[in-house]
Here is the input.
Amino acid sequence: MPVLVGAAMIAAAILLSTLVTAVSTRFIGMDSPNDDNVWLIDRMTGNVYKCQAADRGKASCEPEVATGSIGQPPKR
Here is the structure.
């Protein structure tokens, strides 16, 4: 019985660490050297936000409509 409890604890720890990793890497930021904007991409929903911060602190983000798409990779 103690082996099963230990195995369940290890499984729960692995699942919890996977959940924390997925939530913490949800957004990707891409900046452009030509503007003061940063594009924030939500990896779970695919939404794209255009963020801008005038000074240090919290940035204001507005949803942007992204045009185009990434095509399917060629089949080999």
User: Anything to note?
Assistant: The first strand starts at residue 27 and ends at 31. The chain has a mean pLDDT of 76. The CA atoms of residues 49 and 63 lie 4 Å apart.
